[in-house]
Amino acid sequence: MEVTLRGRTIITLWRMKPRHAFTLVEVLVALMLLGAAAGALVTAVVGDHRLRERAAGDSFAASAARARLEMLAASPCSGDVSGVAASARGVEHWSARASRPLWRLTDSIVPRRPAAPVVIEARVACPG
Predict the structure, then answer these.
(1) Which of 41, 69, 108, 126 lies at a C-alpha separation of 20 to 30 Å from 22?
(2) Residue 17 domain-assigned?
(3) pLDDT tens string for the chain (128 positions)?
């Protein structure tokens, strides 16, 4: 629409056309949803990291116990033995009791990071 005076256009009024944009409420809702999704993602990543650390500790304990079992399997059943070994993963406490037909091994790993100790108990036949 135009307003004219003596043949000259003085004011031109445009019609209000609908704009294709987001409202402030829509933007705020989208930001809240993104914040919730980011929080869920961080929680999942932290949980995954904790589980991986636990799995690494369990794997270390199993390999230490396996090495101890292999050593005992080659030794005669003569008497009780025990020991402590420190490593980068934690402190290992082990003991082996000899009962004539087999060794009874208890191997525990106390991790350096605050976590529950891993305890493995096993029996190995004496050689010979």
Answers:
(1) 41
(2) no
(3) 566 667 676 666 555 566 778 889 999 999 999 999 999 999 999 999 988 888 887 787 778 777 877 777 677 777 888 888 887 778 888 888 887 788 888 888 887 776 778 788 888 777 76
Asked if residue 92 belongs to a domain, the reply is yes
Q: CA 128, CA 112: separation in Å to the nearest integer?
A: 39
Tokens in use for 28?
């705020």
Tokens matching residue 75: 């030794």
Which residue range is the domain that position 55 belongs to? 23-125
Q: Write down the residue that tokens 């794997």 correspond to.
A: 59
In a domain? residue 15: no
Q: What is the CATH number of the domain that holds 59?
A: 3.30.1300
pTM attached to this predicted model: 0.54
